[in-house]
Design goal:
The structure holds 2 protein chains of 2 kinds.
Chain A (H helix, E strand, L loop, with lengths): L3 H4 L3 E10 L4 H14 L4 H18 L3 E13 L2 E10 L3 H11 L5 H10 L2 E7 L2 E9 L6
Antiparallel strand pairs in A: 1-2, 2-3, 3-5, 4-5
Helix pairs in contact in A: 2-3, 3-5
Chain B lengths: L3 E2 L6 E8 L4 H13 L5 E11 L1 H16 L4 E4 L3 H10 L7 E2 L2 H13 L1
Parallel strand pairs in B: 2-3, 3-4, 4-5
Antiparallel strand pairs in B: 1-2
Helix pairs in contact in B: 1-2
The chains are: A alpha+beta, B alpha/beta.
Chain lengths: 143, 115
C-alpha cells in the first residue's frame, strides 16, 4: 500500500461528532481505520489505532445520550493525531456541572493499552470539558 | 454477543464479533446470572471474537475474581492474535487460564476430573 496519498505530507482532517452512546463508538473505530490506512499504516498498526481510539473514548467520560463526543482525526504524512472532546449536546450552562461530574480518570487497563499502542497520549481539561488525545506514527513498534 | 452453551462440563459464554463498551453490560449480566445460578467455574469462548477493549476486559477480570472467591476459575478460549495482544499488554495472560482451542480446555477438564 504505497499510494500517493500515503506519501503526501499534506494535512488531512476528518471530523466526527456523535451522541455519547456506547453503541456509536464503533464509528470512531471505523474513522480511525480509514485515516490510518490513508497514513500507510500496516494491518497491525491499523488495529492498534482502532483499539487506542476506543480506549480514548471510553476513558474521557461517562458515556450517555445527554452528551456528545467530538473527534478530530488529523493526518500529516505517516502521523495520525486524534483528539476527542466530551461535551454536552445542548447549552453549556445547563450541562456543565453534570459534565464536570462525568470527568473520570482513565482505568488502569486503558492506560496500559494506550501507553503500549501509541507513541504519545494525554488527557486534559479544556474549558471545563474532558479532552483526550493520542498520536501514532507509521512504523511505531508496540511497546 | 453470543450465548451460553452447554457442550462443556462448565457453563460457556460464547462471544462473537467486537466485544467493547457497548457489549460489556450484557456480558456482565450474563456472567452475573451464571454466578447467581451457582456456577463457580465459567468458560468464556472468544474464538469468534475479533476485538476486546478494556471495558469488556474489566468485566472479565471482575468475574474472574468472583469465581476465585468461591473456589472456581474463569477460563478464556482465545485464538485471535489481536485479543491475545490485549491480554499480553495488560499482563492478564498470566492471570487468566487461557486456551487456544477447545481441545486444550477438554484436556484441562480431564486433568481436573482425575485428581
Amino acid at each position: 500500500m504505497n499510494s500517493s496519498a500515503e506519501e503526501s505530507t499534506q494535512e488531512e482532517t476528518v471530523e466526527l461528532t456523535f451522541p455519547a452512546i456506547p453503541e456509536l463508538v464503533v464509528l470512531a473505530r471505523f474513522a480511525a481505520s480509514a485515516v490510518a490506512a490513508r497514513a500507510g499504516f500496516d494491518v497491525e498498526e491499523i488495529e492498534d489505532l482502532r483499539l487506542a481510539v476506543d480506549e480514548l473514548c471510553a476513558s474521557i467520560g461517562q458515556l450517555g445520550p445527554e452528551s456528545c463526543v467530538r473527534m478530530e482525526f488529523r493526518r500529516t504524512g505517516g502521523v495520525v493525531r486524534v483528539q476527542c472532546v466530551f461535551e454536552p449536546r445542548h447549552t453549556m450552562t445547563r450541562h456543565r456541572r453534570t459534565h464536570h461530574e462525568a470527568h473520570r480518570s482513565p482505568g488502569d487497563l486503558s492506560v496500559q493499552l494506550l501507553g503500549a499502542l501509541v507513541d504519545d497520549h494525554g488527557f486534559e481539561d479544556r474549558n471545563g470539558f474532558a479532552c483526550g488525545w493520542l498520536e501514532k506514527r507509521r512504523g511505531f513498534v508496540t511497546r | 454477543m453470543g450465548q451460553a452453551r452447554d457442550d462443556s462440563m462448565f457453563p460457556v459464554v460464547h462471544l462473537e464479533g467486537e466485544i467493547d463498551l457497548a457489549v460489556a453490560p450484557a456480558l456482565q449480566g450474563q456472567l452475573d446470572a451464571l454466578l447467581a445460578e451457582g456456577a463457580t467455574t465459567i468458560v468464556v469462548d472468544l474464538l469468534d471474537a475479533t476485538f476486546l477493549d478494556s471495558v469488556a476486559l474489566g468485566v472479565l477480570v471482575g468475574s474472574l475474581q468472583r469465581c476465585r472467591d468461591v473456589g472456581g476459575n474463569l477460563h478464556l478460549v482465545v485464538s485471535d492474535r489481536r485479543i491475545a495482544k490485549v491480554l499480553e499488554i495488560t499482563g492478564l495472560n498470566d492471570v487468566f487460564p487461557i486456551h487456544d482451542r477447545w481441545n486444550g480446555l477438554v484436556g484441562k477438564r480431564e486433568e481436573q476430573t482425575t485428581q
